[in-house]
Design a protein that fits this description.
The protein contains eleven helices and ten strands. By secondary structure, the protein is of the alpha/beta class. It has two domains: 3-245 and 281-328, Divalent-metal-dependent TIM barrel enzymes (TIM Barrel, Alpha-Beta Barrel), CATH 3.20.20.150; 247-273, no CATH class.
C-alpha cells in the first residue's frame, strides 16, 4: 500500500516532532495574473516536492488543482497554451515521478460541477476536467493517475441530478473519461449513489471513509462499501481510497459584542467542530480499528490518500504509530506501509 497526502508540503522530513513554517514547500505558482505566473514555475516547485517525497519514502501525492495557473480562465487567453509551451518540462516532471514511483492525482475544486443546472457552469467545469486530465497526459502518467471529482449539487431533484452527471460524463472526451473517478461526499451524494454512476458509466469510485460516516442513508457497512468501491476499478489499476479522521478540537470563533459600557469588544467563543471537518492528524487507534475491520476481507490491495491538515507530517506520524503497534504484535504488518 502506498500512502499519500494532498498538495501542501510542510517539509518536516527527518524532524519528527516539530515543524518550521519556513520549511513549507510551494506546490504551485500562486502569483496573480498580472505577474504572469506560469506552469513552468509550478513544475520547478513540484520537482522539489518529488525529491522530498522520495527521501521521505512517500509514494503518492495529490498535485494542486492550480498547478497550471489560469489555464482555463475565459478572460485570460494568454494562459491557455501553457501545457504546450511547457511540454518538455512536463514530460521531464512525469519521468521524475515514475523514477521515484510516485502515484499522482488531481482533485478540482468544489466549484467544478459536472451536473450543474446552469449549462455555462457545466461547460466551464468540463473545460477544467479536460485540462486536468491533459496535465496528467502531458506528464506521461499511467492509468493510476486520476482526476477525482464529486457528483455535485442535488438542486432539489436527486435523481435528475444523478442523470445529468451520467449524461455529461458519457459525452466527455475519451481522454478525460480515462482519468476521471467519482468520490462519495459528506452532504449530497452517498457511496451507494456513486455506485449507481459506476453501473451506468463504468466510472471508477473513490471510497472516502469520513464522507461515508457522515452520509450513509442506505446503511451500508464500511467494509461492504469499501469492497464495492474497490471492485469498480479496472483489474490492471490499483484502486485508491481517501482516509481521514474527524476533527475533535474546538474551533475558536471571534465575535463582536457590546459590553456594559456600550462599547464593542471582541469575544472569543469555542465552537464544536462539524463531524465532516478533517483533523490535523490521523487517529491511530481509529485507523487500527478500521484496518482490522477491512483487512480480513478477500479484497484487492489499494493505495490510501490521507486527508489530514498536517499533511506529510500526519502521514509520517501515522507510520510511526502503526509501526509501534506492529512491533507490539497488536497488528499484522501492512504491506508497503
Amino acid at each position: 500500500m502506498r500512502l499519500g497526502f494532498a498538495v501542501k508540503v510542510l517539509g518536516a522530513g527527518g524532524n519528527q516532532t516539530t515543524v518550521d513554517p519556513v520549511s513549507v514547500l510551494k506546490s504551485n505558482d500562486a502569483r496573480r495574473w498580472q505577474s504572469e505566473p506560469h506552469v513552468r514555475q509550478s513544475i520547478e516547485y513540484v520537482a522539489e516536492i518529488f525529491h522530498y517525497l522520495y527521501k521521505s519514502d512517500i509514494h503518492m501525492y495529490r498535485m494542486s488543482s492550480d498547478f497550471a495557473p489560469y489555464l482555463t480562465h475565459p478572460d485570460l487567453p494568454q494562459f491557455h497554451h501553457q501545457l504546450t509551451e511547457a511540454a518538455s518540462e512536463l514530460a521531464e516532471l512525469g519521468a521524475l515521478a515514475r523514477k521515484y514511483d510516485i502515484r499522482l492525482s488531481l482533485h478540482p475544486s468544489q466549484y467544478i460541477l459536472l451536473n450543474a443546472l446552469d449549462e455555462e457552469v457545466a461547460r466551464k467545469s468540463i473545460l477544467d476536467l479536460n485540462a486536468q486530465a491533459q496535465i496528467l497526459d502531458s506528464m506521461g502518467c499511467g492509468p493510476e493517475a486520476v482526476v477525482v471529482t464529486h457528483v455535485g449539487g442535488v438542486y432539489g431533484e436527486r435523481e435528475e441530478s444523478l442523470k445529468r452527471f451520467i449524461s455529461r460524463y458519457k459525452n466527455l472526451p475519451e481522454a478525460t473519461k480515462r482519468r476521471l473517478v467519482v468520490e462519495n461526499d459528506d452532504v449530497s451524494f452517498s457511496h451507494s449513489e456513486t455506485m449507481k454512476i459506476h453501473e451506468a458509466t463504468g466510472c471508477p469510485v473513490i471510497f472516502d471513509n469520513l464522507h461515508h460516516f457522515c452520509l450513509n442513508p442506505e446503511g451500508v457497512s464500511m467494509r461492504d462499501a469499501l469492497t464495492a468501491a474497490l471492485g469498480t476499478w479496472p483489474e490492471s489499476v490499483i484502486p485508491k481510497i481517501h482516509y481521514s479522521s474527524p476533527s475533535t478540537s474546538f474551533d475558536v470563533v471571534e465575535t463582536k459584542e457590546t459590553g456594559n459600557t456600550g462599547r464593542a469588544k471582541t469575544v472569543q467563543k469555542w465552537k464544536v467542530p462539524p463531524t465532516k471537518a478533517h483533523s490535523d492528524f490521523i487517529d491511530p487507534m481509529e485507523f487500527a480499528l478500521f484496518w482490522e475491520a477491512v483487512e480480513g476481507d478477500k479484497r484487492r490491495s489499494f493505495d490510501m490518500m490521507l486527508e489530514a491538515k498536517a499533511k506529510d507530517v500526519a502521514l509520517l506520524k501515522l507510520r510511526r504509530d502503526i509501526a509501534r503497534q506492529i512491533e507490539f504484535g497488536a497488528m499484522r504488518p501492512i504491506p508497503g506501509f
